[in-house]
Amino acid sequence: MDLEQRLRERADVLTPSERRIGETILANSQLVAFGTVADVAEAARVGTATVVRFAVKLGFDGYSQLQASVQRDVSGQLRPAVERIRDQRSGDETLATRHADVEAANVRSTLDAIRVGDDRAVVDRLSDERFPVLVLSGVASRGVAMQFVGDLEQLRPGVRLLDGNQVDIVRTLALVGAEATLVVLDLRRYERWLIDAMELARARGAWAVAVTDNVLSPLASMAEHAFVVSAASAGPFDSHVGTLALLNLFVVEVAARRRDGAVTRLDAIEAAWVAADALTDDGK
């Protein structure tokens, strides 16, 4: 069982200090892989005894076994390479090359992190038009969310970006029942309204999917299924390329699942565009 799975399964019983240790490890796995228990304690702003108790609570014999587990994970992951790419390096490498490497790693890390069964369960739900789909997004990922809604809406009815002011959002969520599917996107630092909205929808019985940046995210803890995206960047802002790749995968799989119905909808859309002379290839 890997560290993220242990964290996911025990998230509800971790204390605030222990959650901070988990977040520290997820943000910098090399610190644990090559550091001491004192290094981790200092980074997480806790005592060394708390780090040891944290390891035991996750099912390890102690810090050494936790460290060995992380070392095995690091040896097979792209994150250390990404961290090296983000460092300033001399030579012929250009910023564009570093950027390309980071984004390629984001896509691969995000898709490789999908747990067996999660993808199928979400696609089953998104493909079934008995269940309306509501998409909620933080400001930073709103553009990606809009693309996802636009694509999915062409394949099936009942897809909506839940947007507007708090009054509109709360009113809609107050009427949501168990038939609704909620897709929620946000990265640290999480917007409070989004957490509150997800709590309200879950209280009404909505089936929720979280797309976020780590297994200890407050969104992940409330979701039926949570997907962790890699958002590393060569620049000052989080990347949303991994998020887009994940959502594009959902769209591709829904299209395959709903092939006949999707073809009918896409033919109708294309016919409407042609009739309206809405698109052109030559600028005339």
Explain the layout of strands and helices.
Layout: H1 3-10, H2 16-27, H3 29-34, H4 37-44, H5 48-57, H6 63-75, H7 79-86, H8 95-112, H9 118-127, E1 133-137, H10 142-155, E2 159-161, H11 166-174, E3 181-185, H12 192-203, E4 207-212, H13 218-222, E5 225-228, H14 241-257, H15 259-275
Parallel strand pairs: 1-2, 1-3, 3-4, 4-5
Account of the protein in words:
There is one protein chain. Strands 2-1-3-4-5 form a five-stranded parallel β-sheet, with helices on both faces. The longest helix has 18 residues, at 95-112. The protein is α/β, with parallel strands linked by helices and 284 residues long. Strand 1, helix 10 (142-155) and strand 2 (159-161) form a beta-alpha-beta unit. It has two domains: 3-75, Arc Repressor Mutant, subunit A, CATH 1.10.10; 112-162 and 179-189 and 202-272, Rossmann fold, CATH 3.40.50. Helix 7 (79-86) packs antiparallel against helix 8 (95-112). It has helices at 3-10, 16-27, 29-34, 37-44, 48-57, 63-75, 79-86, 95-112, 118-127, 142-155, 166-174, 192-203, 218-222, 241-257, 259-275, and strands spanning 133-137, 159-161, 181-185, 207-212, 225-228. It is 59% helix and 8% strand.
